[in-house]
Amino acid sequence: MVFPMRNLTATLCLMIAVLLGSAGMSWSAELKPLSKILRSETSESMSTYATERCSALYLSLSGLLLNRPNNRSIQEISKGYLKIYRELAALALWSNQKMNPSFTIQDLQNILIRIRNAYDQKWKENHALTGHNIGDMTKDDVATCNSLAK
User: Fold this and answer.
1) Distance CA 25, CA 116 (A)
2) What SS3 class is residue 85?
3) Is 71 helix (H, G, I), strand (E, B) or coil?
């Protein structure tokens, strides 16, 4: 009866390793402030990532504003964010195609959706903790993206 115990031990060790690995992946997959990322790496691919991330951020912010009560000035800000989103998305597409000629607009759309989902998750966590969607990291990203968009 020693063998079943070894199998049980091996199964438990594997399960613990998988759980620890997936927990580590979820922690490392969290959004980090864009300014911090850009300070640590300045490659062409990181510049492209910053453009993608800012594009997704402006699109997400526009969506947040559209969910507010009908207010003309908020609507104008939302339209401005949509304009910046489109410009940055076009730049991100061009930059990606320069590095990889087979890169498509669908590839970019998939990237932007994943980034938007990451922001949405961050905003839900912020709301649960503070009652506000926008936290310090998003404010930092907006400042970084405003500089990039100029």
Assistant:
1) 19
2) helix
3) coil
C-beta of residue 93 within 8 angstroms of C-beta of residue 103: yes
- Residues in Cβ contact with 64 at an 8 Å cutoff, skipping those fewer than 6 apart: 123, 133
Neighbours of 125 (CB within 10 A): 13
Name residue, tokens 């402006």: 58
132: left (phi over 0), alpha (psi -120 to 50) or beta: beta
Residues 148 and 73: their CA atoms lie apart, in Å, by 24
Query: pLDDT of the chain along its 150 residues, tens only?
Result: 445 555 545 444 444 544 444 344 343 468 899 999 999 998 999 999 999 999 999 999 998 888 777 778 888 899 999 999 999 999 999 999 999 999 999 999 999 999 999 999 999 999 999 999 899 999 999 999 999 887
CA distance 62 to 49: 20
Residue 97 to residue 111: CA distance in whole angstroms = 14
Helices within the chain (DSSP H only)? 2-28, 34-40, 44-66, 72-99, 105-130, 136-149
Checking 66-74 for CB contacts under 8 A at 24+ apart, the result is none
